[in-house]
Write a structure and sequence with these properties.
- The chain is an alpha/beta fold.
- It has one domain: Metallo-beta-lactamase, Chain A (4-Layer Sandwich), CATH 3.60.15.10.
- It is built from eight helices and 14 strands.
- The strands form two sheets. Strands 6-5-4-3-2-1-14 form a seven-stranded mixed β-sheet. Strands 7-8-9-10-11-12-13 form a seven-stranded mixed β-sheet.
- A hairpin with a 2-residue loop joins strand 8 and strand 9.
- It is globular, with a radius of gyration of 18 Å.
Length: 258
């Protein structure tokens, strides 16, 4: 175990965030700061290294809120916009540090090249565009993130493969609907599990609360935190009161240490 491993939830909301634009839903009108959720992402501080999992459309705001001055790498779970739309906002880090390391699958890199072609351009590249260093990840092979061993874990988001990441007793999963038994075996007994729980009603590409709790029961972590939350799940305080004693509703700004 590293001497210092801190996790900060930068965002815990679903693709629209909470409040949803124009919504009059009671949760969207809540005055409780724990009911206000940016798009899903976490900051990892491991010894003297700083990493982010996913860089969605709120990435710039999240970096400013948490005064992140250095970024050693970004790990991407999948290509959907609420997980990648902030890619251009790595520029301040790039201008100070040089190329930023990105870890994800070859399929996600292909999708990012279509959306952010100017970043991946190799000829006549615009001088203000950032540059990334590409590290291809496969579910079949653990990899070193500096000196931290990371085990990729694959799940399905409806039919789209998504990656989770497990390291030092911490496992981060989002946008999960199903997971093969051999992938679940990789993370059984993890100390801390983060898993998505969208709402109460079933959804075709996300776990609902009942399914997330059943998944937690299979993995049996010491502690579990729910993320990628919709306003339809309900008020933070009320939902928390219904959860098992080792399961917590994550909220923006929550920090945990391993």
């Amino acid at each position: 175990m590293k001497s210092h491993f801190k996790v900060t939830f930068l965002g815990t909301g679903t693709s629209q965030g909470i409040p949803v634009i124009g919504s009059k839903h009671p949760v969207c009108l809540s005055d409780d700061l724990k009911d206000k959720r940016l798009r899903v992402s976490v900051l990892l501080e491991i010894d003297d290294k700083t990493y982010v999992i996913d860089c969605g459309p709120d990435f710039r705001q999240q970096m400013l809120q948490h005064q992140v001055e250095k970024l050693d790498a970004i790990l991407i779970t999948h290509e959907h916009s609420d997980h990648t739309a902030g890619l251009d906002d790595i520029r301040p880090f790039y201008f100070r540090q040089g190329a930023i390391s990105f870890y994800t699958t070859i399929e996600v890199f292909a999708a990012l090249k279509k959306r952010f072609g100017y970043i991946f351009e190799t000829h006549n590249k615009y001088p203000g565009a950032p540059t990334i260093s590409q590290y291809v990840v496969s579910k079949k092979q653990p990899f070193l993130l500096d000196d931290t061993l990371v085990t990729p874990v694959e799940a399905l988001h409806n039919t789209l493969p998504v990656l989770g990441y497990s390291m030092e007793g911490f496992t981060y999963l989002t946008d999960v609907k199903t997971m093969a038994p051999d992938e679940i075996e990789k993370i059984k007994g993890t100390k801390v599990l983060v898993i998505n729980a969208l709402r109460h009603e079933p959804h075709p590409s996300h776990l609902n609360l009942e399914e997330a709790l059943a998944f937690i029961d299979k993995v049996k972590p010491h502690r579990a935190y729910l993320t990628h939350i919709s306003h339809h799940l309900g008020f933070h305080q009320r939902v928390q009161e219904t959860l098992p004693e080792n399961v917590f509703l994550a909220y923006d700004g929550l920090t945990i240490e391993l």
